[in-house]
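Run log, item B.
One chain of 185 residues. Sequence copied directly from the ordering sheet:
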Amino acid sequence: MDTVSYAQEIVKELQRSAAQLDAAEAEEFAALLLRSGKVFVAGAGRSGLMGRAFAMRLMHAGKEAYIVGETVTPGIEAGDVLVLGSGSGETKSLLVMAEKAKGLGAAVAAVTIAPESTIGKLADYTVKLPGSPKEQNGGERATIQPMASLFEQTLLVFYDAVILRMMEQTGQTTTQMFGKHANLE
């Protein structure tokens, strides 16, 4: 298979993943973000990179959004939400964050393949994403992609869809959001 064929297969996999999203969970997640105070985003590895992109768009949409662990990130408190992107739902560092956030009265939202995981059970809100490379279809992998690539891509697409829904619900346009874009580049 050549590079373009691989790209086309990845897009097909993403279409199958998007078709499996639960509309009610997605709507509840967007509503939570709209009504919350500050939004804190975390994830490990590539999931964390997708979370960084999401926090950036939340900021563009006018939300006070932060990446956990950055030096300018304030403390979380009641009324805020911690969004965790974790395929397995078992990432120890994220579990510690979730426990701490809940102890301080903040909501925890997990976007994961495994809502039945430790983080999924601890979370106040869960969104189940497809995309596990461990899923088997008649002994075959559910994806041609390595490791958790399909989950991470689906995570970014889901996060971008949430931003579009929030824009729609708040009447924002891309032009308005661009006004919050970094200008010291």
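Observations after the first pass:
- The longest strand covers residues 81-86.
- Helices lie at 3-19, 23-35, 45-60, 92-103, 118-122, 149-170, 174-178.
Flagged for discussion on Thursday.
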